[in-house]
Amino acid sequence: MFCGGAATIALGGDPIVLTMTTPGHQPVLLAEVMELLAPRPGAKVLDATFGGGGHTRAILESAAEVSVVALDRDPAALPRSAGLASAFGERFQLIDRDFGRLGELETGGLDGVLFDLGVSSFQLDTGDRGFSFRVDAPADMRMDPRSGLPASQWLETATEEMLVRAVRNWGEEKSWRRVVRALIDARGTGRLARTAALAEVIADAIPAAQRRQSKIHPATRNFQGIRIAVNDEIGAIERALPAAFERLNSGGVLVVISFHSLEDRPVKQFFRRQCGQPVGAKDSTPQDLRAQFAEPLTRKPITAGDIELSHNPRSRSAKLRGLRKL
Ligand SMILES: C[S@@+](CC[C@H](N)C(=O)[O-])C[C@H]1O[C@@H](n2cnc3c(N)ncnc32)[C@H](O)[C@@H]1O
Fold this sequence. Notes:
Elements lengths: L7 E3 L4 E3 L12 H8 L6 E4 L6 H9 L4 E6 L4 H4 L1 H7 L3 E5 L13 E7 L4 H5 L25 H7 L2 H11 L5 H10 L9 H11 L2 H6 L5 H12 L2 H15 E11 L2 H14 L19 E3 L9 H6 L7 E7 L1
Parallel strand pairs: 3-4, 3-6, 4-5, 6-7
Antiparallel strand pairs: 1-2, 7-9, 8-9
Helix pairs in contact: 1-2, 7-8, 7-11, 8-9, 9-11, 12-13
């Protein structure tokens, strides 16, 4: 994720000036990502989340003849790629694709893969995409508005179990029973159609004491949960990681930036499994029965330093993990 401002980051050695593809947008943990990927001349890298192309540009500029295949499921990413297409010609290609379908892609022989998960500032800040209740707009929330149901229709038709998963699991809402009940009761009234009314339905369902204690708007986490459900975000990550790993050359690097624990959990588990480490506290597989396919490059996830935090508040929740395929 990224947002406005310009910055220089010093990581160990020389300062790195963050390169921006679209004015006002800047990639998160750029220096750290580049240090892990460290593309050699001629390397082939997949950027699974093109967004505004900030990471892609830095990768293309990092060494001679590096090529990048980028993916984004949001058709609005395509016009943002025009500058890179004209600057780098055949070294750069953007494919209009959900990374959850990476398994269908012919692209292989990769030296590096990057996932910078979640939504972009472009999506959050474009009010009519319906990601935020700060602007009243149709409650859409789809990263790819050409497929699936907008949130408004999804909320009208989802089973109770699907709503519980969105509100309790993905939204981590304490009062999930009340919120799910309120969403079901609001069906057919038009109150699920627009972001402002939807936020009100949610906020009204949450007890006043909980609302007072919370530092964030009561609808924030629920909007996140509904967005994750509408876009099948966790399912896409779970499908994409093995497909990306399979496409890596031996010695290739997989790098993932996540922004909340729900995204980070499948990443952490996948990394641990590939590195031959216990996946969780209950994993009692004897060590000699564990296969190791990769080595970890980050013992603990890397987080943003003070300089980046001071100019890019959205970097505060970013966690970067990397591994190298053996
Ligand atoms: C945080 S932004 C990436 C920013 C980018 N690294 C940059 O420097 O500009 C995430 C992007 O990934 C895209 N995205 C999220 N999930 C996706 C998926 N399953 N398949 C393809 N693109 C996805 C979003 O549409 C968004 O444009």
